[in-house]
Amino acid sequence: MKEKRRLSNTIIYLVLTVLAVVFFIPIALVLMNSLKNKLYISTSPFALPDGESFRGLKNYTEGLSKIHFFDSIGYSLFITVVSVILIIVFCSMIAWFIVRVKNKITTAIYYMFIASMVVPFQMVMYTMTKVANTLHLDNFIGINVLYLGFGSSMAVFMFTGFIKTIPLELEEAGLIDGCNPITMFGRVVFPVLKPISITIAILNAMWIWNDFLLPYLIIGTKYRTIPVAIQYLRSGYGSIDYGHLMATIVVALIPIVIFYFMCQKYIIEGIVAGAVKG
Amino acid sequence: MQKTYKKYFPIFVIPTLVAFIISFVVPFFMGLYLSFCNFKTISSAKWTGLSNYIYVFSDTKGFISALWFTVKIALVGVVSTNVIAFALALLLTKGLKGTNVYRTIFFMPNLIGGIILGYIWQLLLNGILIKVAGVDLTYSATYGYWGIIILYNWQKIGYLMIIYIAGIQSISGDILEAARIDGANYLQTLKNIIIPLVMTSVTTCTFLALTDCFKMYDQNLALTGGAPADQTTMLAMDIYNTYYNRTGFAGVGQAKAVVFTVLVLVIALIQLRATQSKEAE
To answer: Residue A207 contacts by C-beta under 8 Å, 6 or more apart in sequence?
Structure first.
């Protein structure tokens, strides 16, 4: 019996390891090819770099400077951080207000947010671009307002669910101590929201960091975020230089890997919470 | 307390509400209106009634073929991601040592954006195809079809696996223990206890995968770009192309977007029904 068990465990490990390798191959392949000359990438991507095809870090130095990739990392980082802060601060405020002040207006606002969660981006893609241009939101600062708008429905939905579980006594004590509702929210309510805020921040950061179409349509010609820059490398020049493409992809993956290993626990908790509630 | 709070409406509500109105409410109703118009710029819109919608459904090479291609992707993609993710979740919840490492690896691709995923797989699949068949992904729609399926599995399996793991771990140990004492073997336990108790996760994951397939754009754009001849164009990309790559078809594009919205809405309503009936049991 014990022997049989050990055998089945070995098989499980074997299956898992083979799958893990299969999962890892694509990334390893990109890494390997980022060191090769472009001519050897499309014809023999599986060959290890040798004396003839090895290019050292030239793909990195050339590719990154050609499309100003470090600017792109800067834009992506700036937009992601600012948008996530806006979403956490303002959506927690409106969600708290919707829960605490129940009348026709707040209920209507709440259902408007819920209804919008279903609507795909393509429905508003064209008209939203026109509105954003008219209001001069087509720069890397204004785009944060759009992300607040698009991120609000899910954030408000998740915040309201959480706020309903906070006892009123806590807030009353704060008000008696002489706080007005704004300082009370900042000192009493907002700290209590920390776990759900982390979840919402992570879900939104993943979405905004990887988002392609919105930044492409709104600010794509002037300020290229990482996904837009990679697509531009492909379509902006006559023929594609696979060496540059691979090097850019590797650099684009680094922040994601760092983020993943730093916040793995929160990311996985956030995914479960987001999937079950959303 | 409501009264004290009430006058703070502008501070708490206005910022998010304004952003929401700018980015969603106004564009949504403008879009709805424009789907009944012929226009090049918004100010030159002329009401044309249902003609855009009639075009959408009569142009078999555009929307209908993209819809059919998307449905074919969704059918295989939803089943394969869910089956593999569930199987992995079962293996990873057996209490073996070191399973966290595997979980970490399987989940990783989910954090990578669609554009990057597309180019990673283009490199790999083209490399194989050139070696085996001497052609690349753009040669036939069948290659593109399976390319998108493989990419989608790579991206989504880890995500669904996490949800299944949470579902399986929430099953009480007492029930499994009781089954073991009653002499149930593994397959019986799986069929009669584990699967019925994770049905909520199955519903969640099925619809997550389904909605995702329908909205897929980045991966499609980067991997095949619709080649050959728009035969691997999915719905979201067909709408984009109608808008921006065909002059004079913006109205048709907007009508397609409305039909697309209705489709996604129908899926969401079915999901709501399914979830509620599960909860009632």
So the answer is: A151
